[in-house]
TrEMBL record:
Pfam families: TPR_10
Entry-linked PANTHER family: AAA+ ATPASE DOMAIN-CONTAINING PROTEIN-RELATED, ATP/GTP-BINDING PROTEIN-RELATED
SUPFAM superfamilies, per the entry: TPR-like
Designated name of the protein: Kinesin light chain
Region (Disordered): 113-163
Amino acid sequence: MAWFDIWIRGRLGKKHPDTLQSKANLALLHDKQGRYEEAQQAGLLLVEIMSRVLGEDHLDTLSTMGNLALTYNHQGRCGEAEALQKLVTQGTTRILGEEHAQTLTWVRDGQDRARQAGKPEVAGSLQESGKLMVVSDPLETRDQRPGKLMVASDPPEIRGQEN
């Protein structure tokens, strides 16, 4: 266990949101390092604790679920990844709305995972829903206006594209 983890748990407590976020960051680091079993175990435990402490519809809980879906995807467990991704997308849509940047990020992640799982029809149906314009670089979806994301339903002059 890292010294920081011991310190933060001792100062804030095991169930403090900052402690939980620190653990979530560690689980994501395990995933990025290819330590998928450790990432999965930490992610499962965190989702359980966060659901109880923060609530199932808390954005930190949903984000941790999304990271667990990523780990499942890396493990080749595409069905479980897709199911979790769907819950995350539904939750962020309910809380933040369909066109919020975070919701659109989870939708795009769902598209990416569907493509990786060999399900282009799922990825295509997400795109055709009119909620997200797929681009290779997420920064390309930013409009010049602060906080505004370009979506497929925006007029071409806003998106900077012709029909």
